[in-house]
Design a protein that fits this description.
The protein has about 725 residues and is of the alpha/beta class. The termini are far apart.
Length: about 725
């Protein structure tokens, strides 16, 4: 890198966003940052005294290869194409099994050198082994490494997903830099259970990083998802497993992906070879980035992706080479050349954008792939005389070999700072803000029931203060829990992606948030009256104290239940209602309800808790006894709900709510069964959210009808 400001002037400069400047000039500073770019006759006079270097030919941003499998590089020339995906995949896996670690490592090192020689500075690399991470980092190749989860054995894949960050740390050690980001990724809709696909994507979203999935890649995928037929079953058998109860959605791949909430701006769809125009319209509407790999598709399936349909839908596709097991080179510009030869109507500016700006956009790297003041995309000089090809110099240089390219400015290394929305998402995830639905409806139920008692007036100010108390108290408790458990979370594969162990939020920031919310909670409670203000201190002691309990007692589940039960109790007191049996029964219902579902949720950590010396009901009594204890707790919950209705003389709507909530609890236990963890998230989050919400709504209806009767009489 030259340690001075300089100007490069060339016959043509491609800006990376569909624009070509004839007789262009680029001003680059000592850090290789672009200071100015445009027509030479305008740019050069603005920078008098800066030396100008004339480079005949074309200057572009450095290239972006948005889909690779570098770990398969030792398989170049060792697979057969043209017979469909599954014969190719079987042959690839058989050939891969014959390779030594030394062969694979050497091939990956060579592949990274090939990428660098072609002018590529960023990649989207899909990997099971993470073998290429350090080689890419040494070569200053940025982008995203997609740590892939694949397989038909639900239990084994679920366990691997829980261990994924541990696996990453064992293989890679300290992650090299923020320029090359890490993201968990599902392989495809036909090769991983949909619940696990959603879990993988959710993990990536929690990290605030874009993930990737092979989508609508080949006819075998479409046949399997639509009809449950085709070669997938035989492929699973080849892998030594069975499809079992793998769900068949009876849908095409893209519509099915939409039902799984995969078609969106944070998931990259790769291949789309069998997608149609209607599906591309849906992809465009959802702002889903896509990557096409035409040479690989030609090699394996003898077909190309429907590029014209994608462009007509308004999509800006990126390009990738896929692996050397299905391609002859890692030169992403050769992908654009292949498309140019088969789709001559596509403008060359679009083809070049696919390997620069659009590729960078797919990898969520707007700092790359385009020439604009302040960017450091890296610069490539394509050497040659274009005076005889002035009609379209870009199409001429599509045919260039890597030997004709020279890097004249290095790419910047991104320090991936969080956006405001990402930061907000991290903090709301840190305190599990969405879980407020567990406590808030029961606090609201207490307020509604207090309307039938002697009480203080229900004003908007009082409602606002109560809601603020609940939110700040929960936030303080959750932030402190994450702070105190940070070392435990870092060890537990299930929780390693939480914000503090993942590095998204510092421990000091979580502790500061706890302190601020404690102060706000006490102040807000005091605004509701001296009794509420006085009680706020012991309430905080219980809320914060819970986080220590699993270190010394398996009764931690009941302490958590007591902490959440304070919400309806506090709301009752804030309304000025006198303590009585009804509110005690409601608090007991919340305590046992929470303890019951927390016992089920902790089944996931039974082995971990036992190994780490942490206390929980599953770790102490085992899975089956824990499930039965949870069932007993929920029987007590129903009895407490009935007692609340009895003490407050409720009517039909209230007891209908009890009936529906009871049915949901029964459904929750059928999901979990005798320790079946496949549906644990649905049982914990979805079902319990409906329990609290339905109970509140029907209680409110019952009280409304009662008040109407009282007013009428």
């Amino acid at each position: 890198m030259q340690a001075h400001v300089r100007i490069y002037q060339s016959d043509a400069v491609f800006l990376g966003q569909g624009s070509l400047v004839r007789d262009g000039a680029i001003v680059v500073d000592e850090h290789d940052t672009v200071r100015d770019v445009g027509v030479a006759s305008e740019v050069i006079p603005r920078h008098g005294g800066v030396p100008v270097e004339r480079l005949p030919g074309l200057i572009t941003p450095a290239l972006v290869n948005a889909h690779t499998h570098l770990e398969l590089s030792a398989l170049r020339g060792k697979t057969r194409g043209g017979h469909g995906f599954f014969p190719w995949a079987q042959g690839m896996l058989e050939a891969r099994a014959q390779l030594s670690d030394e062969e694979n490592t050497a091939a990956v090192e060579g592949a990274v050198r090939e990428l660098t020689a072609s002018g590529t500075v960023a990649i989207g690399d899909v990997s099971n082994s993470l073998r290429a991470v350090h080689a890419c980092a040494r070569a200053r190749i940025g982008g995203i490494v997609f740590h892939e989860v694949f397989g038909y054995d639900f239990v084994r894949c679920s366990q691997r997903l829980q261990q994924l960050h541990h696996e990453r740390d064992e293989i890679v050690g300290a992650w090299p830099n923020g320029d090359l980001r890490y993201a968990p990724a599902p392989h495809a809709l036909y090769s991983l259970h949909p619940e696990l696909i959603k879990a993988v994507v959710r993990a990536a979203r929690n990290q605030g990083v874009r993930t990737s999935i092979h989508l609508s890649e080949h006819a075998g995928e479409q046949e399997f998802l639509e009809n449950g037929t085709g070669p997938v079953a035989q492929f699973a058998e080849f892998l030594g497993t069975e499809l079992g109860d793998f769900p068949i959605p009876n849908q095409r791949p893209v519509p099915y992906a939409r039902t799984l909430d995969l078609v969106g701006s944070d998931v990259i769809g790769v291949h789309l070879t069998t997608a149609n125009r209607q599906e591309f319209d849906a992809i465009a509407a959802a702002h889903m980035p896509i990557v096409l790999c035409p040479r690989s598709n030609l090699f394996i399936e003898l077909r190309l992706p429907p590029l014209l349909d994608a462009l007509a839908a308004g999509i800006r596709p990126a390009l990738g080479t896929d692996s050397l097991a299905s391609n002859h080179s890692l030169d992403v510009l050769a992908e654009a050349r292949a498309l140019a030869e088969r789709f001559p109507s596509v403008p060359s500016t679009a083809l070049w954008s696919m390997v620069t700006a659009w590729g960078a956009d797919a990898l969520d790297r707007p700092d790359l792939g385009r020439l604009a003041a302040g960017t450091r995309p890296g610069l490539l000089w394509f050497q040659g005389d274009i005076t005889t090809a002035e009609s379209d110099p870009l199409r001429t240089f599509l045919k260039s070999s890597p030997a004709q390219r020279k890097k004249i400015a290095a790419k910047g290394v991104a320090v991936m700072g969080p956006t405001l929305m990402a930061t907000l998402r991290d903090y709301t995830s840190l305190v599990a803000f969405s879980h407020t639905i567990f406590a808030l409806p029961f606090a609201a139920t207490a307020v509604v029931l207090s309307l039938l008692q002697p009480r203080l007036p229900l004003t908007m100010g009082r409602v606002g203060a109560m809601v603020f108390c609940l939110v700040t108290a929960r936030t303080a408790a959750m932030a402190f829990n994450r702070y105190l458990d940070r070392e435990i979370d870092a060890k537990n594969p299930r929780t390693q992606t939480r914000e503090i162990p993942a590095g998204a939020i510092s421990a000091a920031a979580a502790l500061t948030l706890t302190r601020v919310c404690c102060v706000l909670f006490v102040a807000s409670a005091a605004s509701l009256g001296w009794v509420s203000g006085l009680l706020s201190i012991p309430v905080l002691a219980i809320l914060l104290g819970y986080s220590w309990t699993k270190r010394f007692t398996w009764a931690a589940h009941w302490v958590l239940g007591a902490a959440l039960a304070l919400a309806p109790g506090g709301a009752w007191i804030a309304m000025g209602a006198a303590p009585q049996a009804a509110i005690i029964a409601l608090m007991l219902a919340v305590l046992t309800w929470v303890a019951g579902f927390d016992i089920l949720y902790s089944l996931q950590d039974e082995d971990f808790d036992r190994n780490e010396g942490l206390r929980s009901v599953p770790a102490r009594f085992g899975t089956l006894k824990a499930v039965w204890i949870s069932r007993v707790m929920h029987v007590m919950t129903v009895l407490a709900w009935l007692s609340t209705g009895w003490f407050t003389q409720r009517h039909g709507a209230y007891f209908l709510g009890v009936g529906l909530a009871t049915a949901l609890l029964v459904y929750e236990h059928t999901l979990v069964g005798n320790g079946n963890l496949h549906q644990i998230n649905r049982a914990f989050f979805t079902v319990n959210g409906y329990v609290s919400l339905l109970f509140f709504l029907l209680t409110a209806l019952d009280v409304y009808l009662s008040l109407g009767t009282l007013i009428a009489s």
